[in-house]
Every structure is written in structure tokens, then in C-alpha cells.
Automatic annotation (TrEMBL):
Protein family per UniProt: Belongs to the ERD2 family.
GO biological process: protein retention in ER lumen; protein transport; vesicle-mediated transport
Membrane association type: Multi-pass membrane protein
Organism for this UniProt entry: Nicotiana attenuata (Coyote tobacco)
Top-level taxon of origin: Eukaryota
Protein name: Er lumen protein-retaining receptor b
Localisation per UniProt entry: Endoplasmic reticulum membrane
A Pfam family recorded for this sequence: ER_lumen_recept
Amino acid sequence: MGEKGLQTPAKKLFLWVRKQSKKVKTVLGFVTSLTLLVTLKLLIRDHNHFFVLAEFVHLIGLLCLIYKLSTLKTCSGLSLKTQVLTAIFLAVRVFCSFIMEGDIHTILDFVTLVATLWVIYMMKFKLKSSYMADLDTMHYWYLIVPCAIAAFFIHPTTAHFFFFRMLWAFCVYLESISVLPQLRLMQNVQIIEPFTAHYVFALGVARFLGCAHWIIQVYDTRGAYLYLAGRGYFWIPMVFLAEIVQTFILADFCYYYIKSVMSGQLLVRLPQPV
């Protein structure tokens, strides 16, 4: 009785939200995001911690996948293409970070890369029979080529070689859209089992934290952060845009994930595409 009573307000809230128009839902989403941003700004003083938290949350999501692959012995519902794209941008970022920075982010990215490579190995060899290749339909080059072109023209202006600066930009752009194959596969399946849902939700939280960093930085500098000298006039606005794109790409799924959790459902059900 106690648990049912505790869940009732949440169910009522999501039923109410569900009945609202898209315009009202958009306003509610904006207000909720703004509230979270203000809370994060008050709680976290060092802006660098946003990225550390984002990388840590990403790793937690991967641990959910590792648990699923190790115990359930199936990779159904997972996009191999998203994992490969993730491994690519992580490998590039580890390489560039080792040369250009070499800090805690390098270590976290390396651990995340190793976990991602293990997931790829399990999907390609050990659990290949359960991989939904026919539903993982998005092509690599549709995502990689535009990122490479954008990186060639828009990249940070630093003292490092052009090639390294372009690689850094490439991994930023690729990260922002690497989850698209996973979202496409989930739209094809429509019913998402818990551990895959946990993983994608973790990506959404990680991207929100990264986006929060840039929004708070821009707010604190009254917009001047977008055009810092020595960084290239288009680079930081492009990074800011990439973070926003990532957040919005995952926002819709996060809504259905939270709705399912609050309703006590283990499976996340996505609406049929119009």
C-alpha cells in the first residue's frame, strides 16, 4: 500500500502531462530544464566538474550494457553502429587529449573506450546471433563525412598542428550525432528493454551535463565566452551548438524513459513514427 501510494502522484503527474498539447509540453520541458540548470549552477562551482560527471555517467551507462551482455547473453536492441562511432570519437579524443591536455579526462575517456571496445567485441563475435542487423540501418558515412568536412573548416585555433586541431573538432561533432543509429534502431523496435534504456538515458544525462557547462559559461560571461580570442570565432559557438543538438536528440527518449519508470514499467515504449 505504501509503495502504491507513493507512486500515485507521479502517475497522476505524467497522465496530466500526457494530456497536454505539444506547446504546453514544450514549455514544461523548458521550465524543467531551466530549473535543473539553476540547481546545477548553485551546486557545482568548478565548471570542469560538469565534463567529469558527464564522462562518469557515460561510463555507468556502459556498465549497464556490460551487465546485460554478460548475464542475459543477448545484444538485442543495441546498435553496433552507435558503439563503433562511440569507439571512433573516444579513440580520437584520447589521442588528442594525450597530446594536447593529458588530464583526468584522458583517463576517464580511456576507460570508457576500453568498455566500448569490449561491448563491440561481444556484439560482433560472442553474441552475433542476437544482433538486430536488419534494424540497425543507418549508414556510417552519412554521419562521419559531414563531421569530417565541418572539422576541416571549423576547429579550435591553438598552437597545435592543424591535423590535431581538426581531429579534436571531428570527435566533438561525431559525438553529437553518434547516438542516432541507436535511436533509429529503437524507433524500429519501439519496445526497449531495461538495460538498453538505462544506457541511452545515461547518454542523455551525460549530454545534458555537457550542455549545462556551456550554457552556464555563456551566461556567466554574458555571451563573451562564445568568442574567446585565440579559439576561433566559429569554434566555440559550433561546440555549443553540437552540445545542444546532442541534448535535444535524446530529450524525447528521456521523457518516455522517465514516464515508464514513474509508472513502474520495466519496458520503455516509444510512440510509432508519424
